[in-house]
Every structure is written in C-alpha cells, then in structure tokens.
Amino acid sequence: MVKMNYELTEEQQAIVEIAKQIADEKILPIREEYDEGQIFPNEIVEILAKSDLYRVFVPEEYDGLGMGIFEMSLVTEELSRVCGGIALAYAGSALGAFPILLYGSEEQKKKFLPSIASGEKIAAFALTESEAGSDASNVRTTATKEGDHYILNGTKQWITNGGVAGVHSVFATVDPTRGIRGMTAFIVDSETDGLEIGKKENKLGIRASETVELIFNNCKIPAENLIGREGTGFRVAMGTFDQSRPGVAAQALGIAQGAMEAALSYAQERIQFGSKIYSFQAIRFMIADMAIKIEAARALIYNVSKLIDSGAKNTGGYSAMAKTFASDVAMEVTTDAVQVLGGYGYMKEYPVEKMMRDAKITQIFEGTNQIQREVIASHLAKELSRLRK
Amino acid sequence: MKRVVVFIKQVPDTAELKIDPVTNTMIREGVPSIINPFDMYAIEEALKIKDKWGDTETVVMTMGPPQADAALREAISMGIDKGILLSDKKFAASDTWATSYILSKAVEKLGDFDVLIAGKQATDGDTAQVGPGVATWLKIPSVTYVRKIDELEPGHAKVERMRSEGFDIIEVKGKFLMTVLKELNEPRIPSFRGKMAAKKAEIPVWGADDLNTDEANIGFTGSPTRVVKAFTPPPKKGGIKVEGDDLETVKGVFKFIKENHLA
Ligand SMILES: Cc1cc2nc3c(=O)[nH]c(=O)nc-3n(C[C@H](O)[C@H](O)[C@H](O)COP(=O)(O)OP(=O)(O)OC[C@H]3O[C@@H](n4cnc5c(N)ncnc54)[C@H](O)[C@@H]3O)c2cc1C
Ligand SMILES: Cc1cc2nc3c(=O)[nH]c(=O)nc-3n(C[C@H](O)[C@H](O)[C@H](O)COP(=O)(O)OP(=O)(O)OC[C@H]3O[C@@H](n4cnc5c(N)ncnc54)[C@H](O)[C@@H]3O)c2cc1C
Predict the structure, then answer these.
(1) Which of A62, B20, B182, B242 measures 20 to 30 Å from A211, CA to CA?
(2) Which residues pair with B17 in a beta bridge?
(3) Residue with CA closest to ligand 2 atom 24
C-alpha cells in the first residue's frame, strides 16, 4: 500500500494485517458480485468474527480487546479500501453498539456486549424516520410505558444492517410534544414480537450493505432495556455520533485509498500517444493531488480518533471535521480516479466506478456534511466563548 | 487428551524457482519464504478436528533452518497450540528419506497422537514423498491426496482419496497419516488473539541429540537421493480437436483411442 507510515504498536499492526488479509483474500474476489446483486456478506461477518475484529471496540470486561476508536477506524479503513459497502457489516455494528457502550448500565453491557464482541450478533442503530432525517429530534416512533415495559410503535427507515442485526439501538419518543426532551433510547432484541423488517432499499452505492425499514408494531420492550433515562435519547444519539464519525471518515479514507491505488497502477500501464499516461502532467498531478488529500485526511482522522480515545471532552467538532473532510476527499478522489481511467473507469470491469458510487454515502449518513458544518460552527463558537470566560 | 500433528515446510514464495546450473539444486537466497500452500490445508484440517473433538492438542513441526521458526508462528496465529522446530547442522541437505526419518523421530519423542497430517507435496521439492515416508517409518497407514473427510474419530476414519479420474473411499482403523489437497477446506485467517499468542510462543528446538537420530539416516550422508539433473518439462501439446456430429467421426475417435492405448 502506498501510504505514510504511522508508528503503530504491535497490536495495532496485527489488527491492520488481519483486516488487510481479509480484504485482499476474502472481500476482493466477491466485491463486484455482491455490489451488483446487493448481497449481504454473511461469510465475511463470520471471518471478521473469528479473527476477533468485532472485539476491537469492546472493553475487555465484556470479552473485547479493549481498544478504541483509533483501532476501529484502522480496521474500517483497511476493509473499505477494498469494499466500502462490505466494510459496513463491520463499522455499522460499532455504531449500533456505541449507545450501549457509552451510555448503557453495567447490566446492559454485560448482557449485550459479549455477543457483539464475538460477532455472534451484529448491532444496528435505528434513528432515522421519514420525517426525521437531519432533524433527528422529529422522531415519531413512540414508547409508551406500561408497567415494567415500554410499548414501541413506529417505522424507522434506512437502517444499516437492520435486517441482519441481533441487537438494535432504537430511538423513540416517550412524549412527542416534548421534542428532543422526549427522545429515549432503547435496546431492542431482533427477536422481539412485532418487530418487522420492511422494505429493503435499492441503492446507488454501498450495495453490499443492507439498508432496510424497521417496523415496530406494539413491540414490548422491558424497561431494563432503556438506555440512560427517559428523555436522554437525543444526548445518547449525539454522543454516539461524536465517537462514530471517525469510523465514517475511515470508511471514506479507505475508499479514497483504494481509488488512488487503482488510478496509480492503471496510469502506469495505460499507453496513449506512445507514452504511459502517468507521464502526462495532467494525470500525474491529479494523482499527486489525490495522495495529498488522502494523507491530510488520514492525519486528521488518526489524530481525532486518538484524541477521543484519550478521554478528552468536547471532541464532537473535531470528529465532524474528520468526517466532513475525509468524505469530501473520497468524493473528489474517486471522481478523479474515474477520470484517470477514462472510459474504462466508467465500466464495471474496473473498480473505480463502484468506489465513486460508494463514496457518496459518506457525505450523507451519520449527519450530512451540511449538518457537520453546523456542528463545527457551533463548536467553534462555544470554544471561543469558553476562551473569553 | 487427543493430539493431531501437522508437518509444515517453509518454501520460497515464487512459482519461478531458479535452479543452480552447477549443483542442480534450488537457489533459495533472496526469495521470501511462506508456508508450503498445501500445508495450509493441513493446518486448517487440524484446527477443524480440534473444533470438532475438543480436548485436542494441535502441534506443528517443521524441519528446517532457524528461520523456519516464522512458519511455526504463523501456524500458531491461526490457532495451532504448539510449534516444534527440528533444526541441527547435522540435518542439513537431508533428502526425503532423511527428512521423513527425522520427522518420525520427532513424533516418537512427542508421544502419543491420533492423526498426522502433511500437505500433498511441497511446491519446491515437489516429491510428495515426505508424508508417506513418515508413516512408513512409524509403521502406520497413510492415505494420500485426501480431498474430503466423511468421518473422523480417534481410531477410525473414512476419507476420500482423489484419483486422476474419480476418487476412492478409504476406511482406516487406528492412528494414521494423511496428505491433503486444496479441495479439503479453506484455511482460516489468523485471529488477533492467535497473532499475539504466536508472538509470545516458546518454540522448542530439537536437534539430533534430542531425537537420538541415527547418523546413517540424516543429513547429506544419510540421504540416498542424488539430484542428477533438473529440467523444465516441455509444455503439454494442444491435443487434437475433432468436429462433426456423424457416426463416422465418432468411430474415428474410438479408433484413435484404441490405437493409441488411451483407454
Ligand atoms: C444508505 C443509507 C444508510 C443509512 N443508515 C442509517 C442507519 O443505520 N441509521 C440511521 O438512523 N439512519 C441511517 N441513514 C439515514 C441518514 O443518516 C440520513 O439520510 C441523513 O441523516 C440525512 O437525512 P435525510 O436523508 O432525511 O436528508 P434531509 O434531512 O432531508 O436533508 C436534505 C438536504 O437538506 C440539507 N439540510 C437539512 N437540514 C439542513 C440544515 N439545517 N442546514 C443546512 N442544510 C440542511 C441536508 O444536508 C441535505 O443536503 C442512512 C441513510 C442512507 C442513505
Ligand atoms: C529437486 C530437488 C532439489 C532439492 N534441493 C534441496 C536444497 O537445495 N536444499 C535442501 O536442503 N534440500 C533440497 N532438497 C530436499 C527436499 O527439499 C527435502 O527433502 C524436503 O524436506 C522434502 O521433500 P519435498 O520438498 O519433495 O517434500 P514433499 O514430500 O513434496 O512434501 C510433502 C509434505 O511433507 C511435509 N514436509 C516436507 N518437508 C518437510 C520438512 N522439512 N519439515 C516438515 N514437514 C515437511 C509437508 O507437510 C509437505 O507438504 C531437494 C529435493 C529435490 C527433489
């Protein structure tokens, strides 16, 4: 791989080697078919599980390896280099697990995290609804308390890993009139009566990632599955995003890296006008620019991830920067990679058109890049007022 | 506790082997080493047996220079319990006779076992003799070219042996050795825990004195094989294509087969 060398520890290197081997040996041969057919990679999940990679982001007390966002991002980057869609079978589970990991009680962690760590269960994160996209506070799914249970009713859409997950972190409102102060997070077992998998989306990119509708029809959820307290759901969701965004950024970074490598090797082989196209400055510079942007994105992501892992507070603005920058880089780099390959780049025989399709989602999900800029702008204003105090 | 022993060989990672024109042996310098690809299936099968039997120790052994330690650690990263390196200046230049003798002595030293597994052949030496050789020294049955395992319990096995056409179903009683093919399984990717265990593992090194080997069967002097000549066999010719859907054409094909003793 053509990339800058970071001083990784022995453990981090081992994680990267494993992820790389899985990507190159197991994902590469199937990525085209799984993209075309929108096939969820069950066997890759099993391999990721057996190789301990789902343990990376789970603390040791719950059968994890006790590593952090940085290592989770390293894995996501490496898998995404080969397939940004299949990588979500990994990163999506981290996103679904974070609400429990960050805000769950000791009992909840003991009950749910070990099976996520072993990969026996995938986790999903269910926030978005038809009327609640960027405006996540507008959630209409209701949670009504009945004795020691809550009854959930409503429909979530575009839930990554929704149909394959064993555990869902679900955001509902205990009182629609209270806006974000009504929002409450629950852990929902996929076996819960009344939970149905609805429409499976047909998408532009990340087609091997499953995106489905989840329908809650009088789902009886034990009160002990409530995360935090009634009304803290919005904070749980936002706190989760602050930690999960480097994962999306790493997905974008990996996609960009894959596209740059494809463009670089193609440009050194393709001959036009009697020369390798890599000898044309227009092409060389395009690839040089790709590398500059990718390394800048990598530096930002790695630093933000390490900052989060250090336990620092107020990291949300920085994780939003990493996500925004890396996803914009991914879109630019993949678009240019198609350009470098010319007409061949536009064809499915080459991987770059898929990378371009896959890159787009990273500017949209876990908060669009417009919303990220809102987060960053608010963060800057808050930091300034803190300094002035 | 049950025990499965796997023999692995470190080979150069290249399909294009260079042969020293003077000595007629392989030039190994400067070529990165990997575990012989067929031995990866042997490792995977041992792990599958352990998954199934439980309470089983899996052991890998290799005879080679000190660097072969890396191959053993790689096997441990995949989940193998223990690696043993058989290394001694006296072992150098051993042929298949001597190699299989040394491996058999190491198995004897290790103690009891249920199954021994070797790769079908090594991609460098290519003789496919070492597996059956070990079985011969140990006076146990061997089944070569195993492509599928139908039943396998301690003391009893039913396996499929690949042939150029079709396959044999073979039942074996007692301990035995098998050499395995690519069709048998898909080797697993190392786990994180395995990799960490591999870094920390202590790899015992057994030499001629530890194994009580007979000087007459080891090293250059104990090796009856002399490589007289090594050459690249000419590529297979294209064959003959016969077209037509009439009876005469078919008869012609039968005649050709008969005349050339092809059936
Ligand atoms: C493939 C896929 C997978 C997904 N997976 C999940 C999942 O696992 N879990 C989950 O909960 N959700 C998931 N989502 C939902 C995703 O997070 C939302 O699509 C995203 O937050 C944007 O919401 P929206 O699509 O409703 O866009 P809208 O909110 O309708 O936005 C439309 C446009 O308006 C802009 N906009 C909106 N508000 C503002 C504003 N205040 N200022 C400036 N611009 C604004 C947006 O940036 C965007 O350009 C997924 C979506 C997709 C497509
Ligand atoms: C043409 C030729 C050139 C040779 N050149 C050299 C040379 O330059 N230097 C030299 O030292 N030897 C050389 N040898 C000897 C040869 O490499 C050894 O005898 C070798 O250990 C076994 O032969 P093989 O590679 O054919 O293995 P095969 O019999 O094809 O291997 C079958 C299986 O036996 C097991 N196995 C084989 N070897 C070992 C081992 N060492 N340890 C553990 N398990 C094993 C593996 O499971 C393997 O898959 C040469 C042999 C030949 C035929």
Answers:
(1) A62
(2) none
(3) B125
Other C-beta atoms closer than 10 Å to the C-beta of B14 total: 12
State the CB neighbour count (10 A cutoff) for residue A369. Answer: 17
Question: DSSP code of A129?
Answer: B
The residue whose C-alpha atom lies closest to atom 12 belonging to ligand 1 is A128
> Could you say which ligand is closest to the alpha carbon of residue B41?
2
> Structure pTM?
0.89
Closest approach atom of ligand 2 to CA B11: 25
Check whether domain B2-222 has CATH 3.40.50.2300, yes or no: no
Nearest C-alpha of chain B: how many angstroms from A192? Answer: 32
From the CB of residue A328, how many other CB atoms can be counted at a distance below 10 Å? Answer: 19
Element of type H or E holding A171: strand A167-173
- Tell which residue, B33, B113, B29, has the closest CA to residue B72: B33
Ligand 1 mean position, distance from CA A204 (Å): 15
Q: What is the CATH number of domain A123-231?
A: 2.40.110.10
Neighbours of B62 (CB within 10 A): 27
Is the CB of residue A252 below 6 angstroms from any atom belonging to ligand 1? no
Question: Can you list the alpha helix ranges (DSSP code H) found in A212-315?
Answer: 233-267, 281-309
- Class of CATH domain A234-388: mainly alpha
Q: How far apart are CA A164 and CA A161, in angstroms?
A: 5
**Encoded tokens for B35:** 């575990």
Q: Name A332's bridge partners.
A: none
- Tokens for B53? 């039997």
Residues A206, A327: contact at Cβ < 8 Å?
no
CA A62/CA A40 separation, integer angstroms: 27
Residue A300 · residue A326 · CB < 8 Å: yes
Helix (H, G, I), strand (E, B) or coil at A149: strand
Q: Phi and psi for A126 in degrees, rounded to 5?
A: -115, 95
Whether the Cβ atoms of residue B60 and residue B80 lie closer than 8 Å to each other:
yes
Residue ranges of chain A assigned to CATH 2.40.110.10: 123-231
Start-end ranges of CATH 1.10.540.10 in chain A? 10-117
- Provide the residue ranges of all domains of chain B, joining segments of one domain with +: 2-222
* Min Cα separation B192/chain A (Å): 6
* ipTM, two decimals: 0.88
Q: What is the pLDDT of residues B64-74, one digit of tens each?
A: 999 999 999 99
- Residue B169 and residue B165: Cα distance in Å, rounded? 13
- Given the candidates 3.40.190.10, 3.30.420.40, 1.10.1420.10, 1.10.540.10, the CATH classification of the domain at A10-117 is 1.10.540.10
For the segment B204-251, what is each residue's pLDDT rounded down to a tens digit?
999 999 999 999 999 999 999 988 887 777 777 778 888 888 999 999
What token pair was written down for B223?
Answer: 């090796």
